[in-house]
Amino acid sequence: MSRPDSPNKTSESGPKGLETMTRALVDADNYHRWLFGEIEPFLGLKALEVGGGSGNLTRLLLPQVDTTVIEPSQAALDTLIPRIGTRANFHSVLGDICDQSIVNDFAKSGFDTVVSSNVIEHIENDLLAVRGMHKILNPNNGRALIIVPAHQWLFGTLDTAAGHYRRYSKSTLSKLFTDAGFKVEHCYHLNIVGAFAWYLNGSLIRTRDLNANAIGKQALLFDRFAVPVLKRLERIFHPPFGQSLVLVAKA
Q1: What is the pTM of this model?
Q2: pLDDT (tens digit, 0 to 9) for every residue of the chain, 251 residues total?
Q3: First to last CA, the chain
Q4: Which residue in 2, 70, 159, 191 has the fewest CB atoms around it within 10 Å?
Q5: How many angstroms from the chain centroid is the CA of residue 40?
Q6: How far is CA 169 from the centre of its chain?
Q7: Which class for 13: exposed (0-12), middle (13-18), buried (19 or more C-beta within 10 A)?
Q8: CB-based contacts of 85: which residues, under 8 Å, 6+ apart?
């Protein structure tokens, strides 16, 4: 299913859709499987993915759950849809989670899971977006499974290049969801090595190009060598800080 485009709540002049992503991450399979593994135990039967990007998470969701993607960028959908292919349990919507008419329709559609990975930091009115998630999930007492960038002190040139409005602390992310009506069940840091790399590139070197050659090479080396080790270690012990935050919340 699809809708006409609706106003995007991200910056009118800032990057949108695929422009907000490092292209090399499309091939970072270990990294995407790591993120997916953090939310997989909490999946229900029918998921709404907010912000599908190029489909890195979508392709992992589909073998497990009926999945609808809402994405405000036509260019992103033009990349995602051919990558996923035709599947009976895959649906896409061109639109904005802040559009209340879309939220009202989704609230009647039986979703028991909302998934969002590295998206709500791109939304200026993040509370409006999260209230929409709550309204969608509330009829089925569903869960929001959220991954966002952590620590405002890590905010640097890469965040600006990616069109981020903010990064989150455990307290600000938890408060955002409780203010929207959710009960937070889990909230923890992930990827301690990524935090150092982000600080190096975004605050010390002050790289302004998400697709700089050095950034792409780092991403692929990190995916190949660091992720398999971190995945095992951080399963045992959540680090005190990290590049990302993972949140699980009940509507």
Answers
A1: 0.93
A2: 433 333 333 334 578 788 888 998 999 999 999 999 999 999 999 999 999 999 999 999 999 999 999 999 999 999 999 999 999 999 999 999 999 999 999 999 999 999 999 999 999 999 999 999 999 999 999 999 999 999 999 999 999 999 999 999 999 999 999 999 999 999 999 999 999 999 999 999 999 999 999 999 999 999 999 999 999 999 999 999 999 999 999 99
A3: 25
A4: 2
A5: 14
A6: 16
A7: exposed
A8: none
Q: Please give the Cα distance from 215 to 201 (Å, whole number).
A: 8
Instruction: Count H helices and E strands in the chain, helices first.
Output: 10, 7
Report how far residue 159's alpha carbon sits from residue 105's, in angstroms, rounded to the nearest whole number: 33
In this structure, which topology does domain 17-250 adopt according to CATH? Rossmann fold (3.40.50)
Per the CB < 8 A criterion, the answer to whether 121 and 148 are in contact is yes
Q: In a 10 Å sphere around its CB, with 0-12 CB exposed, 13-18 middle and 19+ buried, how is residue 86 labelled?
A: exposed
- Residue ranges covered by each domain of the chain: 17-250
Query: Residue 134 has which token pair?
Result: 């709550």
Residue type (1 letter), 124: E
